[in-house]
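Our example pasted here:


***
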Amino acid sequence: MSGNTSGDIDESLYSRQLYVLGADAMKKMSASNVLIVGLKGLGCEVAKNIVLAGVKSVTLYDPSPVVISDLSTQFFLHQEDVGKP
């Protein structure tokens, strides 16, 4: 199942997941679109892990403006982001 054609799963990248989940589940995951609403500390970590799991696409939605305390829980924010939605 390795190769570069669409629909194939890169066994060298996802070998552990293939072993645990199986090829059918991995194919379904690679075709999945995921929406994550709310990116406080936990949402950010969940988003990272879902991306690393190999889903097709991830859409992030969080209308809350960034506050200074978010900088300690979210690795992708910078001080310049404070106050931005």
